[in-house]
Amino acid sequence: MTVTSPVSIVIPCYNRAALVGEAIESALANGDGAEIIVVDDGSTDASWDRISAFSGRIRSFRIPNSGVSAARNFGVEQAKGAFIKFLDSDDRLPAGAVQALLQAQSDLAPQQIVFGDASSIGPMGEAIVPFGYGYAGLAPNGAMSRAALLSGTMSPYLPLYPIKALHLVGGFNPTLSLGEDQELAVRISLAGFQFFRIPFVVAEVREHLEDRLSRTGDADIYRRQVCVANEILRHLCSETSSITQDEILSFARTIWILGRDAARRRFEVESRQLFRISTDIAGPVQAAPVILRPFYKIVDPYKMEKVLDLIKRVIRRTKS
Fold first, then answer.
1. Do 60 and 38 touch, CB atoms closer than 8 A?
2. Which CATH superfamily is domain 5-212 in?
3. Model pTM score
4. What are the pLDDT digits (tens) for 141-189?
5. Model confidence pLDDT, tens digit, residues 240-259
6. What is the DSSP string of 117-131?
7. Residue 272 burial by CB count (10 A; 0-12/13-18/19+): exposed, middle or buried?
8. 174, 287, 133, 155: CA torsion to nearest 10
9. How far is CA 213 from the centre of its chain?
């Protein structure tokens, strides 16, 4: 690979004919020599036609449907930039985002990776609210600890990834269909890199009605969370000499919270699996809220969550 531009913007696309053009336009608006790579992941709608309309201004590729991780990895393989900025085909890149990331990165050490915040936009592109996955509180001074990383989600559109870091760890895990972004970030952290936050919105993330509906609970989401948790746990176990107790507890608490969430939605199998992973990491109920630990020692976590949920419902009814 010959580096000819500082940044390659990689946009994977699958059946986003109505929106991919807007994503590409936002990337072009960040321009200033950035290379824009769009990978159509075997779309069956008019996405490729929309992408082809930008011929001469972007580099576009079409591959058999392989999933978003494989599409991103393919884009990285084609990239000529020293840094990679990922952008989903239904999202937008805010004005000045690439320049802000590059400027911040120029002031950092080689083993630090800059990332920013995100904002939500509605189905029609209307602004909703800025957010940062909680990292504003976890990294108020910029540098983020690994314990903080293990307690959140490093979505792929937040960092400016050095292409050398992506090559070093092998890119995204194509076997994961959810949480692949966090699993990648953990591997990069274990490879010796540290994430550094700037308070600048670097992605406008579109919310869709179907996304909101899915949050009401789909057991498959939690099954995939179990797969991600096991993968991250495997990586942590392979680096035991460099992992601290705080980092272990941070990850265990994250998994415990997912277990509680699954329990509230009555996904018993998935909830118990997540509670088991958390317990395997940190010991019995060590990741649970301190005030609730005595109860979890008497009643198993899944049943305890059902009891707590019932109590909350009764309280709400008495107040109404």
1. yes
2. Spore Coat Polysaccharide Biosynthesis Protein SpsA; Chain A (3.90.550.10)
3. 0.90
4. 689 999 999 998 899 999 999 999 999 999 999 999 899 999 999 999 9
5. 778 999 999 999 999 999 99
6. EEEEE-TTS-EEEEE
7. middle
8. -10
9. 19
